[in-house]
């Protein structure tokens, strides 16, 4: 089964089912644990992981799955360089704060590149789909809409940034950028705001992992935008033994000389 509309619909359904499992737990009290890297873990992370693994497993003849919640069980990409990249609950801190800005991320990686991505925000009732080369869409209560990044426009730069990961380096970058307005947002929704033209640029000058960006990068690129590492190269997903991303910029069609930002 190659990438087609039926596969996109299947992945979207899986993401939405995982979102339903998350919302069941979101509606009641839940415990919060701490992983070895000090990041939080809730039962919603595990419930979504279990559902996604079960549903993704049979697709495409059993393509391997790299999930944030089971990195040790990942055997590596298959002989064709493919694997599923999953964050069952991206934005666990936002989930704990109950501000709604958390997502389910599912991407198909082929030869180091995201070839499709679904980002579902269950509390917001919103799903983003990216199929690079074919298009990007947003599904909400009003239906399914094609989305594209923005080009030139007047006014200050609209910069989307993290609610939970502010840094002095980011403040310095913004000062160099000049006139701007901040659009705070959690999880991979930051990338999706760039994809749908609600923000101009998302500078990420702190740590992220492959599963934080893969699905949303597919959405940005399918919408006509770019997600670039410090030397202008696209984020690469072929090195699964190194799950941390470099710093990156996500932006639309408008090109300027960005302030220095580096690794």
Question: How would you sum up this structure, described in words?
Answer:
The chain is α+β, with helices and mostly antiparallel strands. The model has no long low-confidence stretch (mean pLDDT 92). 40% of the residues are buried. The chain has helices at residues 5-26, 43-56, 92-97, 168-177, 189-195, 210-222; strands at 32-34, 40-42, 65-67, 82-90, 103-110, 113-121, 126-131, 135-140, 143-146, 157-162, 180-185, 201-204, 226-228, 248-251. The strands form 4 sheets. The chain has a 7-stranded mixed β-sheet, with helices on both faces. The radius of gyration is 17 Å and the shape is globular.
Q: Overall pLDDT, averaged? A: 92
Total helix count?
A: 6
CATH architecture of the largest domain: 2-Layer Sandwich
> What is the name of the CATH superfamily of the largest domain?
Fructose-1,6-Bisphosphatase, subunit A, domain 1
How many structural domains does the protein architecture include? 2
- Unreliable runs: none
**Biggest sheet record:** 7 strands, mixed
Distance between the termini: 38 Å
**Share of β-strand residues:** 25-35%
* Total beta strand runs: 14
Per CATH, what is the topology of the largest domain?
Answer: Fructose-1,6-Bisphosphatase, Chain A, domain 1
Kindly report the spatial arrangement of strands forming the biggest sheet.
Answer: 3-4-5-6-7-8-9
* Overall 3D form: globular
Can you tell me the CATH class of the largest domain?
Answer: Alpha Beta
Helix percent reads 25-40%
Radius of gyration: 17 Å
SS-based structural class? Answer: alpha+beta
């Amino acid at each position: 089964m190659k990438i087609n509309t039926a596969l996109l619909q299947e992945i979207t359904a899986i993401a939405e089912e995982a979102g339903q499992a998350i919302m069941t737990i979101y509606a009641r009290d839940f415990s919060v644990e701490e992983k070895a890297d000090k990041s939080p873990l809730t039962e919603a992370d595990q419930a979504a992981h279990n559902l996604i693994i079960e549903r993704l497993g049979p697709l495409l003849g059993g393509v391997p799955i790299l999930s944030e919640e089971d990195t040790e069980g990942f055997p590596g990409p298959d002989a064709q360089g493919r694997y599923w990249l999953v964050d069952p609950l991206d934005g666990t801190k936002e989930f704990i704060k109950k501000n709604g800005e958390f997502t389910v991320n599912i991407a198909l990686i082929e030869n180091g590149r995201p070839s499709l991505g679904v980002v579902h925000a269950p509390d917001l009732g919103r799903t983003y789909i990216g199929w690079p080369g074919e298009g990007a869409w947003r599904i909400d209560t009003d239906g399914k809409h094609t989305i594209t990044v923005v080009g030139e426009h007047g006014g200050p730069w609209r910069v989307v940034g993290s609610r939970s990961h502010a840094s002095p380096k980011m403040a310095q970058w913004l000062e160099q950028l000049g006139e701007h307005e901040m659009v705070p947002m959690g999880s991979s929704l930051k990338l999706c705001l760039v994809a749908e033209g609600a923000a101009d640029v998302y500078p990420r000058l702190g740590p992220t992992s492959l599963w934080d960006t893969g699905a949303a990068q597919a959405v940005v690129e399918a919408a006509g935008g770019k997600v670039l590492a410090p030397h202008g190269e696209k984020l690469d997903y072929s090195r699964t033994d190194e799950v941390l991303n470099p710093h990156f910029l996500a932006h639309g069609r408008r090109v300027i000389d960005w302030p220095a930002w580096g690794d």
